[in-house]
Design goal:
Layout: H1 2-14, H2 17-57
Pfam families: Flp_Fap
Keywords: Membrane, Transmembrane, Transmembrane helix
Protein name: Flp family type IVb pilin
Amino acid sequence: MNGLIMNFIKNFIAEEDGVTAIEYALIAALISAVLVTAVGLMSGGLKTVFDRITLSLK
């Protein structure tokens, strides 16, 4: 039983698929954070542009 647990731990440490999945998840989270920030920053400027257009059309 002890050898089985040690084999499991050795295989778990040597496994690289989990590390790759975590790296991809971190990259996706970073890209999402950048997109949310960019959209948040641009939304104020876009509102100003559309407000000016609305005023000039009246």
